[in-house]
Specification:
Layout lengths: L1 H5 L3 E5 L7 H15 L3 E8 L12 E6 L7 H20 L6 E4 L2 H12 L7 E4 L8 H12 L3 E4 L2 H11 L4 E2 L15 H10 L7 E5 L8 H14 L4 E5 L8 H13 L10 E5 L6 H7 L2 E4 L8 H8 L4 E4 L4 H4 L6 E3 L4 H13 L3 H14 L2 H27 L2
Length: 402
């Protein structure tokens, strides 16, 4: 055990997708920070034929072959758990890892199966947030993924508290980070090119939301708020980027389309509503700079990396007055809104656009950048990994004495 505590760790990090979702971004940034700190890291994710990670990765990667996701959610999750389990089982025949760490229920359930089969000693699970599913099997997989873990981490106190109260789990807090070099208010030549590609109107106030059209992101109420905002700012455009999700949001998309049509707002490039979808990773810094305000009136979040990225890009932000935002953001750093009140969201958007304060935004970005960094997050993870390995070795020694 002393040898493991002294040397760099061999770490397998599992994430559910190669697409730009918050949990995937967290995994890649953490993996690269661990790699830069001298540890051997392999990021593992399911990938259909032809798929690759949405951005280059500085550490090793292992793509788990899967077919295109079936429409049935339970079938999809079951097939991906099985794919992870089989692929890692083969990997274990030729490679050894000190730490297995899953960022979602799919990878965690595969690791739980491998642990039950005696192929690994244990695993770590980060809970970013929990979902409510109609299918009982999905709920069972979600809870099993952290109940069977040797260690559980959370990115906010909110989810620490919920896991303790709801499941008796004592989770450790691990911070997110922000790449201050990647996100900046300084314009580049790519900004104008992206604006032209998306059909952003010169001089029009741009409201930006990231994460796609989803109930958790509260996109319908954001659209209601935008309809109200257009009464005072008739040229405003709503840009929604992202949305590469494994979950089925088709019904919510239909409700969004119906509300946009009822409000007389066309959707498309150059229209009042621009559904940009997942964009190339290189476009994201420009996308932030093109916005007049970033809207995040979410109903449920694990942390909210978008807030850090937007402020670092010099853009005002509107967020829900709920945890986890209230944990790390100060009252005067942005505009707060009741996520259940479209009028409140509209008012916050208007204030953010009309009373933009670059100096205050810069001060907030500096404060948050000093508090949240990926190297610090990686160091915290390593500390917890080593504690978990030490505790597991102690338990094994105790059992060996009987």
């Amino acid at each position: 055990m002393h040898e493991v505590e002294a040397r760099p760790l061999r770490i397998g990090l599992l994430t559910h997708s190669v697409n730009p979702r918050g949990g995937v971004v967290h995994t890649l940034e953490l993996a690269q920070a661990l790699h830069d700190a001298g540890h051997e890291v392999t990021v593992m994710a399911p990938a259909a034929p032809g798929q690759r990670f949405f951005r280059p990765v500085r550490c090793d990667t292992h793509l788990v072959p899967v077919q295109a996701a079936p429409r049935d959610m339970v079938e999809m999750v079951a097939s991906r758990i099985a794919a992870f389990r089989a692929s890692i089982g083969e990997l274990l025949q030729r490679e050894c890892f000190d730490v297995w760490h899953a960022q979602d229920p799919i990878g965690a359930n595969a690791l739980a199966d491998l642990r039950a089969a005696g192929l690994i000693d244990g695993f770590v699970r980060t809970v970013h947030h929990l979902e409510v599913f109609e299918a009982a099997q999905l709920m069972q997989w979600q809870s099993r993924g952290f109940l069977r873990a040797r260690q559980v981490f959370c990115v906010s106190r909110l989810w620490q508290t919920r896991l303790r109260a709801g499941h008796g789990i004592e989770a450790a807090e691990v911070a997110n980070g922000i790449d201050g070099e990647r996100f900046s208010p300084v314009p580049t030549a790519g900004d104008a090119a992206l604006a032209q590609r998306l059909g952003l109107l010169a001089g029009a106030p741009i409201v930006l939301a990231l994460g796609g059209v989803e109930a958790r992101k509260n996109t319908l109420r954001l659209l209601e708020a935008f309809l109200q905002l257009r009464r005072d700012l008739p040229t405003a455009q709503l840009v929604i980027a992202g949305g590469a999700s494994l979950l089925d949001h088709a019904q919510y998309h239909r409700a969004f389309a119906a509300l946009a049509q009822a409000g007389g707002l066309p959707v498309g490039a150059g229209q009042p509503i621009v559904l940009a979808g997942p964009l190339p990773d290189a476009d994201i810094p420009s996308l932030y700079r093109l916005a007049d305000v970033v809207a995040m009136p979410s109903l449920n979040e694990g942390f909210g990396l978008v807030v850090l990225e937007a402020l670092a890009s010099g853009v005002p932000v509107v967020v829900s007055r709920i945890a986890p935002f209230t944990e790390y953001l100060q009252t005067d750093e942005l505009q707060w809104a009741d996520p259940l009140d479209a009028c409140a969201i509209a008012s916050a958007l208007r204030v953010a656009i009309e009373q933009r304060e670059p100096e205050r935004i810069a001060a907030s970005a500096a404060r948050l950048g000093a508090r949240f960094s990926w190297p610090a997050s990686a160091a915290r993870h390593v500390q917890l990994y080593r504690e978990g390995l030490r505790d597991a070795a102690t338990r094994a020694d105790s059992l060996a004495t009987f």
